[in-house]
């Protein structure tokens, strides 16, 4: 199959996949303290994280424009698959849909098959979806089969995350100052998850990061099915050792097909913040 896979930059693809010609990352942008950052390979994530800590206001993100997607539609590839952030978190999905419609209007005789997958999640979940698309395309599945199987795959996925710091939630108003203060004083770490519609829910909490991560590992088992047939992706924000320890912990409990650790790029770093762990199964 002749294909390309477009992902927005909240998809924290491992470096070896980013180098493959059929993967294209379409960047979002971030406004922080009056400066605009493009979430691409040139972004110094460590420097961005430092600036985010120093800036009193929360960063503002902007999705790719339809034109940012459309410019990648030209070429010999007849099959284009796009994976985006949840439409509840960003306009990236809607922008990709508009790009497809505009392209088809402007090129009525084109032979492109363009499919857009709403991840209903972010970060590590987008990685799983992109890898699933690639596996099916390499196996020679038809476009109709890929569309069907990937949407079924998305329906069966679960995303979880634990935040080390609640500072960004306080800055953007999702937690008031009193709530954030109490959580910090008591060292409470929320365990969050994604609803099937792409919104965020609180699952539980732990006193301290270690207890919270252990509880998240338990929840993976409680909610997961046929884990031995699944890949788990762990996205870490500036805490590679913590991610390795969490990988070891879940492998003590469950037998996954594979467990992949990735580093957060700019958008996922904005959400996860320093020390955050985002897991998709």
What does this molecule look like?
- The chain has helices at residues 15-18, 45-54, 66-70, 92-106, 124-138, 143-155, 167-171, 177-185, 209-223, 240-253, 266-272, and strands at 3-8, 23-26, 29-32, 35-38, 60-62, 79-84, 113-118, 159-162, 188-194, 200-207, 231-236, 258-263, 277-280.
- The chain has eleven helices and 13 strands.
- Residues 177-182 have low confidence and may be disordered.
- The strands form three sheets. Strands 10-9-8-13-11-12 form a six-stranded mixed sheet, with helices on both faces. Strands 2-1-6-7 form a four-stranded parallel sheet, sandwiched between helices.
- A hairpin with a 2-residue loop joins strand 3 and strand 4 (35-38).
- It has 281 residues and is α/β, with parallel strands linked by helices.
- Helix content is 40%, strand content 24%.
- It has two domains: 3-155, Rossmann fold, CATH 3.40.50; 159-280, Hypothetical Protein Tm841, Chain: A,domain 3, CATH 3.30.1180.10.
- Helix 5 (124-138) packs antiparallel against helix 6 (143-155) and helix 9 crosses helix 10.
Supply database-style keywords.
4-stranded parallel sheet, 11 helices, Hypothetical Protein Tm841, Chain: A,domain 3, 24% strand, 6-stranded mixed sheet, Rossmann fold, 281 residues, DegV, lipid binding, alpha/beta, DegV_C, globular, DegV family protein with EDD domain
Describe the protein's topology.
Elements: E1 3-8, H1 15-18, E2 23-26, E3 29-32, E4 35-38, H2 45-54, E5 60-62, H3 66-70, E6 79-84, H4 92-106, E7 113-118, H5 124-138, H6 143-155, E8 159-162, H7 167-171, H8 177-185, E9 188-194, E10 200-207, H9 209-223, E11 231-236, H10 240-253, E12 258-263, H11 266-272, E13 277-280
Parallel strand pairs: 1-2, 1-6, 6-7, 11-12
Antiparallel strand pairs: 3-4, 3-5, 8-9, 8-13, 9-10, 11-13
Helix pairs in contact: 5-6, 9-10
């Amino acid at each position: 199959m002749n294909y390309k896979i477009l992902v927005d930059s909240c998809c924290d693809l491992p470096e070896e996949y980013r180098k493959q010609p059929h993967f294209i990352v379409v960047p979002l942008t971030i406004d922080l303290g009056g400066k605009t950052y493009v979430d691409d390979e040139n972004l110094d994530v460590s420097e961005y994280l430092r600036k985010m800590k120093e800036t009193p206001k929360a960063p503002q993100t902007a999705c790719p424009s339809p034109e940012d997607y459309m410019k990648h539609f030209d070429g010999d590839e007849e099959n284009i698959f796009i994976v985006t952030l949840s439409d509840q978190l960003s306009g990236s999905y809607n922008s990709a849909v508009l790009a497809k419609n505009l392209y088809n209007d402007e090129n009525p005789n084109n032979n492109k098959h363009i499919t857009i997958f709403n991840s209903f999640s972010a970060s590590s979940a987008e990685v799983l979806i992109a890898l699933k698309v690639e596996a099916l395309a390499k196996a020679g599945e038809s476009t109709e089969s890929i569309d069907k199987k990937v949407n079924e795959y998305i329906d069966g996925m679960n995303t979880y995350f634990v935040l080390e710091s609640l500072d960004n939630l306080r800055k953007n108003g999702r937690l008031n100052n009193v709530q954030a203060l109490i959580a910090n004083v008591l060292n409470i770490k929320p365990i969050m998850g994604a609803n099937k519609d792409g919104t965020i829910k609180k699952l539980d909490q732990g006193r301290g990061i270690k207890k919270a991560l252990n509880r998240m590992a338990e929840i993976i088992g409680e909610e997961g099915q046929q884990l031995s047939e699944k890949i788990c992706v762990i996205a870490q924000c500036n805490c590679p050792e913590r991610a390795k320890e969490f990988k070891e912990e879940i492998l003590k409990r469950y037998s996954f097909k594979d467990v992949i650790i990735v580093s957060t790029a700019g958008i996922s770093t904005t959400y996860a913040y320093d020390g955050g762990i985002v897991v998709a199964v």
